[in-house]
Amino acid sequence: MRRLLVTIIGLFVLAVAGLRPIPATPGHTICAMPASPLSEARLLAVELENGCLEEGGVEAGVEQDSWPPGWDTAAIAGGDVPPSRVVSDPYPTLHSVVVDPDRNRVFFSDPNRHALWSYDRLAASTRREAVEPLTSIRGPATGMMFIAAVTIDAAAEEIYTVDNDIGDRMMVFPYDANGNARPKRVLEVPHQAWGLSISQERSEVAVSVEAPREIVIYRKGAEGNEPPLRTIRGPRTGLGDPHGLFLDGLNNEIIVANHGNHGGRQPAPGDARVSEPEPIVGGRFDEPSITVYAADGNGDIPPTRKIAGPKTGLNWPMAIDVDLSRNEIAVANDGDSSIRIFRRTDRGDVAPIRVIKGARTGIDGPMGVAFDRKNNELWVANYGDHTALVFSSTAAGNVAPKRVLRNAPAGSPTVGFVNPGAVAYDSKRDEILVPN
């Protein structure tokens, strides 16, 4: 019973963690819990007033003595009880990044606050202060949960993002969206979608999906339950827990970063009907890799090229981006806090042509990376720190960034939560254990 009680309390703590206050942005609605204790009914009313809830979430003009309704008469212990303490990060955590150099805008996804943020491209922290965002898309109407990748269709002035954990949706917002905004389009995507890339040349959107180890390609503009145009999936593909990807319409290729993890079930070939359940073949760990496929590829196809091996230094490769003018691939290498640059045409066990790494760089648990080809810059989104960093596109070694964009005061700790699914208590060490 003690273990059950501790687990319930822990889950409640994590659930409340997403409601802690964050710094207010002038002119923006921030949908967060006020610092002073409020009843649940009053809190919901406040969020409704601030535009953080759909109309009807709390009946207008109806004062409720308990929330949920009837709780005060339930024959169990409990009620509107605040937690004794909360472990949470009150600030946004920058995950993926994309740049629109023509409009001097940079966009970030934030799974911690379930938000999309945009900043002026030249904004920078001069000392230890945080930079105010231009826009913040956040709230129940957005439908965003554990959002992962972000990309843009600059021509249409649209922002794309996918939910990685339980959302199973791709959402599209206009550039001028702000606050608790509804997406203009929603597309149902497979469970555990992570990476996202748009090809203007092919008018297509590619999505990487972790557990089934697949790449799904949709027409640009797809919505609802529209099926993908093609699916790359199966044992011959070499896909292993794919994350970042780039749909290269110029060279007609799809470039994918793989962690190398394989679940115990064998996914069906991408051009075959998925059986239920899929056969159990046993899980395994392959080495991290970058695999390349034909852009019009479909089904259980082998990669045309593969970068993997000890010389590569790949270790939890997350987002990737490709500079087509230089023919270079940038990889956010989360495992050793580095950015690794390869030639686009590399194959086999090859060393990167450049590596940005070291104490002076400020790189800490990078999840996102993006080239700004117009301004010859490279952006890095730090998940282990409340910063985004800007380097020269040709930077190498232990070099300081050109600019630092902070979204929290310098030194603000990050709790390290990614998407915690459980909690446990170690009574021997008096510690709370949180698997991510």
* Morphology call: globular
Number of beta strands: 28
Q: How many strands, which pairing sense, and closed or not: the largest β-sheet? A: 4 strands, antiparallel
DSSP helical segment count: 2
Helix content: under 10%
Classify the fold: give the CATH topology: Methylamine Dehydrogenase, Chain H
First-to-last CA distance: 25 Å
State Rg: 22 Å
Strand % is 25-35%
Structural class: mainly beta
The CATH architecture category equals: 7 Propeller
Low-confidence region ranges: 1-38, 54-64
Name given to the CATH homologous superfamily = YVTN repeat-like/Quinoprotein amine dehydrogenase
3D architecture notes:
- There is one protein chain.
- With 436 residues, this protein is mostly beta strands.
- It has one domain (97-406): YVTN repeat-like/Quinoprotein amine dehydrogenase (Methylamine Dehydrogenase, Chain H), CATH 2.130.10.
- Helix content is 6%, strand content 33%.
- The chain contains 2 helices and 28 strands.
- The strands form 8 sheets. A 4-stranded antiparallel beta sheet has the order 1-2-3-4, with no helix packed on it.
- The longest helix has 16 residues, at 2-17.
- It is globular.
- Mean pLDDT is 86; it is low at 1-38 and 54-64.
Task: Give a nutshell description of this structure.
The protein is mostly beta strands and 436 residues long. Helices cover 6% and strands 33% of the residues.
